[in-house]
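Illustration: Purine-cytosine permease.
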Amino acid sequence: MTLYSTEEEVIEETAGGEFERQPVPQSKLKSWTSFLGMYAGEHAAGTEFVIGPLFLTTGVSAFDLIVGLLVGNLLAVLSWRFLTAEIAVKYRLTLYYHLERICGKKLVTFYNLANGVLFCFLAGAMITVSATAVGIPFDMPMPKLTDTLPNSSVWVIVVLVIGAIISLIAAKGYETVSKAANWMSPIIVIAFIACGIVALTQLDVSSFSEFWAIWGEGSEPFPGQIKYGFWHVVIWSWFANAAMHVGMSDLSVFRFAKKASSGWTTAAGMYVGHYMAWIAAALLYAVYLKSPEAQTLLQAGTAPDVAPGPLAYNAIGVFGIVAVILAGWTTANPTIYRAGLAFQAIMPKLSTFWVTILAGTVATIAGLFPAFAMKLLGFVALYGFILAPVGAIIVFEYFFGKKFGIQKFYAENSGSNFNNAVFWAWLLSFGVFYFISIYFNVFLSFVILPAWITCGILFLIFSKKEVRETQVH
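Result:
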């Protein structure tokens, strides 16, 4: 079973099905094989066509990239297995309801808003990815690595058309999206493998040492990019999906798992998608960097374009165009749908159709600005940094709440709509570490873990204080 058929059930039930506000019953639990296909499909998608090339622009070395990705993706798998899946099978609740029981309805509204907007920006980046493929027959100027604004009227038209189509299909319901995506996902995986093989041939690679030499000892980063070393790759790849594992978003998925050991199936996504697909996409860019056009740009001090459409087209022709369009599509569609659900929690009187159209409109507008895709490494880090600490609230309550003497599911048991301990724990941890990142120029992914731990500890301290004050009164 792929991501989309599993998530169809998960998301539709979250949106108002029978398990929205109660644990999933035993009769609805799924075996580990359901999650294996799901994660393999989710993580070989549109984002991979951008992330792989962007690693090359950071001047990363072969060891730092290949070994760093091995380690970072393993840490992500361990986070899913021993944090997300562990808590999910204990309570079998959606993330939203679990948070509501701790935080209160009003506070969860802020989380839903942030979640929905960030989902829209991610979907917008995927609309950008698809547009780079659709624009090839029209000889459309591709966005440059440093571009922020739309670079042509053709670009605007292509993005608006793609955004409108994706939004309308997402608004028709998840069943329509999932049926199309079930056959799209295998095509995309095959395309990544084909791209990698063809690129190796184009690079005249016939041995492992020649493959290693593509990155070698590394190089200076491209204009506008920062230099990545081993720990940049490890930490970034660990937290590329921070919102999903340490941020606990995938509680909504793993609540259907029979056992917490189903968390190991995330390795399919990390090593088929985040390892194989990233490296295959990087090889496509390595081919382009050897072209006269790219060399001229580099000599002029300009970063060559990172446009997935042309890169894939140069490797595998029309199949590459189709694969990039589908990859952007299969990421943007469910992401817009999720964003719509987050907005619906804030505006419950609006129908699912119209909140999804609203989300699609925001995503399409974001897609007009290439910066969301061209700066995807930074955006994904920011996404995780904002949302991941919220997951620490759930983790620390689960593992340390009883020992620390705090009240479990405080908002539910106290009747509170706004848990101050949660709010101040998140705000202080976010504010302090974001300031450190900006003021001291610290790589944002490096402060995600400290911010996450700090948020969890502050939550315990503030909750303990609140319990004492309640007892006094």
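Reading the tokens back as a structure: Confidence is low (pLDDT under 50) at residues 1-18.
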